[in-house]
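Appendix B. Chain record.
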Amino acid sequence: MEGQNQSMPIIFYMIALPNHPELQPLFFTIFLVIYLAALLGNSLISTIIATNSRLHTPMYFFLINLSILDIFCTTAAIPKFLQIILSKEKIISFYGCIAQMCLFSGVLSTETILLTVMAYDRYVAICQPLHYSTIMSRRTCILLAAAVWILGFSNSTVQTSLIPRIKFCQRNIIHHFFCEIPAVLKVACSDTYVNNIAIIIADVLLGMVCFLLTVISYTYIISTILKIRSAEKKKKAFSTCASHLIVVTLFYGGVIYTYVRPAFNNVLEADKVISAFYVIASPMLNPIIYSLRNTEVINALKKLLGRKLYPNI
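Structure tokens predicted for this chain:
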């Protein structure tokens, strides 16, 4: 199929459930419930932290940033997908697709760096506890958060700015839930060599470097915890980083599969399932993971609910 002139209207057909049209109402309900749960959970976590002065620490400051990113992540993908499920045409415009890619790629890049910063925060808290307040000062945390957002969305801007240079056919079928860069590149009608190189560079500079830094941080953390003699202190030290470690494992599992795996291992259905997990399920699970394993958050939630239910007490 020959590529059309880029000035012609370009349409992307989102065919996420081609073989099961009868299941679309069920999927609509499931995705809507998950989206609302992700919004509620992350908004609740942010509210709990913001309204409780005891949680105004670096760890919870970065957790608010993670919650905001999770809200952006689900909002970038799910509402449009819900609209596509209900519509007969199942289309998204070229610039709508670009906008979705830009926002989602920015969130993904930013979250990758943020999880590394959160791992460093846990490293300082456990391995350098006497210097924690000095190293992770308020000013440092704000600068780190700003750098995380700027670097993440700068990478997204570079990646998505390369998309318009590609020739696309007038009608393109994307077998995915949303416009993700690897999925869109598969339907290009011209060479995507430059885009693939840009993705590899981003994988190395962001993905692999952040992953290695996170692994190094946890190597020191685990080594330090194992040296603690008291079983109670050892358990307490591990509990402060267990939630973050679970979130990191879930996040990197999906991202590495989608962006770093060999190009010849190309299974569309598997791509959709994995992407749906770290775009839809992970933002919903993150608040649950952090709240269920954190007594401070649970106590703050009880206090907040008590204040709402019994304001005069």
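Further analysis of this model is presented in Appendix C.
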